[in-house]
Write a structure and sequence with these properties.
hydrolase, globular, Hydrolase_YcaC-like, 9 helices, Rossmann fold, YcaC, alpha/beta, 6 strands, Isochorismatase hydrolase, six-stranded parallel sheet, single chain, hydrolase activity
């Protein structure tokens, strides 16, 4: 059976940032703290660059999970924000799901903490309802690589596509000529080695 390559469409995608909370971040062990924070903020910058509707949610933030990481909240000051009182699967929260449906988008980018619960559960739920789901693997974290790989396998077998923030940005951008400096600036900000390429490009232009 042939495979249909449905690309991410900047005009038909929404981003769900699930449970990037101060307490839960201490559980992330499959990425270094600095790398993980950089990945999450890179995804946020991409969403802002392409003006992608973004929805934020937290789980039991008055408990040990803690508040959403301030930098994430600051990236999306006007985004719908749902502090779930107890539901572990954010798709069980009616207000959150209504906000997702209100975007009118058929594609969902999902990232969160932890990968095997806060990302996997809504991913499986959204797939069941007919959404096309793209899991941003390096902006999602969990206890260890074994747990992560099992969660990735579970979601992929259900039909989710696994991507990283860099490939998300490139697939949305399509063509460098759309905005060389703008998109290149995001890559340079979050990939130090890419900054060298941008400096060379700038020097050549000068």
């Amino acid at each position: 059976m042939g495979y249909t390559y449905n690309r991410l469409n900047k005009d038909d995608v929404a981003l769900l940032m699930v449970d990037h909370q101060a307490g839960l971040l201490s559980l992330v062990r499959d990425f270094s703290p600095d790398d993980f924070k950089n990945n999450v903020l890179a995804l946020a910058d991409i969403a802002r660059f392409f003006d992608i509707p973004t929805i934020l949610t937290t789980s039991f933030e008055d408990g040990p999970n803690g508040p959403m990481v301030p930098e994430v909240k600051e990236c999306f000051p006007d985004a719908p924000y749902f502090a779930r009182p107890g539901q572990i699967n954010c798709w069980d929260n009616e207000d959150f799901v209504n906000a997702v449906k209100a975007t009118g988008k058929k594609q969902l980018l999902i990232a969160g903490v932890v990968t095997d619960v806060c990302v996997a559960f809504p991913t499986l739920s959204a797939l069941e309802e007919g959404y096309e789901v793209f899991v941003v693997t390096d902006a999602s974290g969990t206890f260890n690589q074994t747990t992560r790989d099992a969660a990735w396998s579970r979601m992929e077998q259900a039909g989710a596509q696994l991507m990283n923030w860099f490939s998300v940005g490139c697939e949305l951008h399509r063509d460098w000529r759309n905005d060389i400096e703008g998109f290149g600036g995001i890559l340079a900000k979050h990939l130090p080695h890419y900054a060298n390429l941008m400096q060379s490009f700038s020097a050549q232009k000068a």
